[in-house]
Amino acid sequence: MPTRQAAVVGVAESDEIGVVPNKSTLQLQGEAVLNALDDAGLALRDVDGLFTAGFRTTEVAEYLGIHPRYYDGTHVGGSSFVVHLGHAAAAIASGRIEVALIVHGESGRSRVGLPASASSAQGMEGQFENPYGMPGAPGAYSMACARHMHQYGTTDRQLAEIAVAARQWARLNPRAFKRDPLTIEEVLASPYVSWPFRKLDCCLVTDAAGAVVVTSVERARDLKKAPVRVLGWGEGHDHQIISQMPDVTSGPGRISGPDAFAMAGVKHADVDVAEVYDSFTYTVLTSLEDLGFCRKGEGGDFVSGGRIAPGGDFPLNTSGGGLSYTHPGMFGIFTIIECIRQLRGDFRGQGLRQVADAKIGLVHGTGGKLSATGTAILAAD
């Protein structure tokens, strides 16, 4: 275990999320940073560690006007920020930094001030997959899902249960982008995007940013909010492009999950609330299997019957997730934000919005084409 245990002490989104055409990506990030620091009772001058993906740490630091002495630009898609959480905890444990800031946001819908990117034709996907008709992320994930359905008998109705549960949680969240009622039949009636995925199997595209502040447990005790300790974390990846995935029914959560649980010293039954990246409904299903909450091939049964919906015995993606709450491009940071709020009891008095007696939480991010994962176990202090 770390010699100086780390704790999350502040989390926040940008002032506005959803459709925000009047603000750039960096403006959204700046708002999230100031809001998260205010949540913690800290200021920009306190930050000495910066963790980003998408924009370079130098660009974000310059925009914020800070000069961190430790920085990490690990960029493995939507899992980056859960990986950052583990890296920040390690840096705090070793005494390298006192206050870590993790930030990410994108003008994913309005496309204002996004970071520059290399031409896809220069990359592996551009050379070896796109010319043969692979329709981006929906195509890659749907191919993996189709194999899972063939191999294990997973049904589109079971996938629809995930979308419906997410929407039920979103209806309890005033900031969620999609809050209209949703039924399994409506999911199954939505148009195909890439078989077997229908439109409502796919995440939103929004504008949003989020930020997370981490420090030592000792320092955390003097701050505004109850700290949430980082008990354990893990990370893993086993491919970049989907055609090179060793087994499309099993992702690198099988690597990051056991490491996180072993470091934390907790069991699956100890987890009170889980926030699992839901870029697509299938991402949730296969992640739960890889993390060990059920056996491979049993994910469909695990998520069925309202089990992961409000009032169910496995509270999952309690903000509404990427399917109904927000998804600016890389969602992983929002899994941390929601989990912290649940463990702090921020929603007390709001009925099912608050998971009762939540003490242990799991966050899990997936990046790329099921390529990389980060898993962390958190605990209310």
TrEMBL record:
Domain Thiolase C-terminal, first and last residues per copy: 234-379
Pfam families recorded: Thiolase_C_1 (PF22691)
Alphabetical list of InterPro entries matching this protein: Thiolase, Thiolase-like, Thiolase_C_2
Transmembrane segments: none
Superkingdom: Bacteria
Record-given protein name: Thiolase
Lineage: Bacteria, Pseudomonadati, Pseudomonadota, Alphaproteobacteria, Hyphomicrobiales
